[in-house]
Design goal:
The chain has about 150 residues and is α+β, with helices and mostly antiparallel strands. Helix content is about 35%, strand content about 10%. It is elongated.
Length: about 150
């Protein structure tokens, strides 16, 4: 809309309500000298303005309460117990390893005996295709070894 054609509105003006000032009880004034003068710091902003102000001391955290001391004897006993348990565990593992190795070697010996025994059985009971030894031909009644001729 055009500014000349705006409808007229009534304007209400509100006046602020004054707040009564707090009643202050005057504190006793104790004269003190400042321990140190605060340092004034100036910072130049990128647009060229300079901001000057007092440095604010950051509040320091409360000191941590001292831990109670631990007796040297208690530390030595605890470390000795841990060492003892480590040695016992290592011996248990070593014993288990030796038992397993012994069983494995026993199984290898049994396997070698079975294989060697099988080889001997094949040699004794298998077909004899070799020459030499006693030749027996019953039909002709020829015994080469005893020199019997029939």
């Amino acid at each position: 809309m055009h500014p000349n054609h705006t409808p007229q509105q009534s304007v209400e003006v509100h006046q602020p309500t004054p707040i009564p000032p707090p009643v202050a009880h005057p504190a006793p004034v104790i004269p003190m000298q400042p321990s140190t003068l605060p340092t004034v710091a100036s910072i130049v902003l990128p647009d060229g303005r300079v901001v000057t102000g007092y440095a604010i001391d950051h509040p320091q955290p409360q000191p941590v309460a001292a831990k109670p001391t631990v007796s040297r004897t208690a530390v030595n006993v605890a470390l000795g117990g841990v060492g003892f348990l480590a040695v016992c565990g290592g011996l248990l593992l070593l014993t288990s390893f030796i038992v397993a190795l012994t069983a494995f070697i026993g199984q290898l010996i049994i396997l070698a005996a079975v294989i060697f025994g099988g080889w001997i059985a094949v040699q004794v009971l298998g077909p004899s295709g070799h020459t030499g030894g006693t030749t027996v031909n019953i039909r002709r009644a020829v015994f080469k070894r005893n020199h019997f001729h029939g």
